[in-house]
Each structure stands twice: as C-alpha cells, then as structure tokens.
Design a protein that fits this description.
5 helices; mainly alpha; 107 residues
C-alpha cells in the first residue's frame, strides 16, 4: 500500500527531490568557507603529530604551520591575484606532504 501511494505521487516526489537538491547546492556554495575551517583544524594538528615528539612540540609545530601557511597563502594571493582561501589550503597541503615525507624518512 505504501509503495502504491509513492508511485501514485511519483512526479511530486521527483519535483520535491530536485527542489531540495537545488536548495542544498545553493546553501553549500555559501558555506564553502567550512572547507578552510576544516583544513585549519585538521592539517596543522596532523602535521604537528607527525613531526613532534612530545605534546609541547606538537602544539608549537601545529601553531607554526598554521601561521606560516596563512602568511604564505595571503602572500601568494596578493602576488598572483588569486583568492586567498584556496591558496592557504594549498599551503597547508604542502606542509602536510612535507610532514608525511619527513615521517616516512624518520622511520
């Protein structure tokens, strides 16, 4: 009986799905700044954990990587006339790759 009622209103549910998807995409475009926040909360701490040998070193390295990535991202943003957010995330990604390579070579 339930499947019959859903099939009966198939066009309505399809339109509702498309409308909901369009709203979701529009909201995601406004909230895309979340990517930058997520990158700042995860990448420096992971780099610090890979490089640091103690909790204090992890905190110091994480803070330094976050600060340096921000400075580099803004510098290249001005230099290349590109948006700063993606360049900061790229700088964080470079530091993450360097940290991964350092961790592998250290073991």
């Amino acid at each position: 009986a339930l499947s019959h009622s859903i099939v009966k209103h198939k066009r309505f549910y399809h339109s509702l799905f498309i409308f909901t998807l369009a709203i979701l995409i529009a909201m995601a475009m406004k909230i895309i700044g979340v990517l930058l926040v997520a990158a700042f909360t995860t990448i420096p701490s992971n780099c610090g954990k890979l490089i640091g040998k103690s909790l204090k070193q992890t905190f110091i390295i994480s803070t330094a990587i976050g600060f340096i990535s921000t400075i580099l991202g803004f510098y290249f943003s001005v230099l290349l006339n590109l948006p700063s957010g993606p360049l900061v995330v790229c700088a964080l990604g470079v530091f993450w790759l360097i940290s991964m390579i350092y961790d592998r070579l250290r073991k």
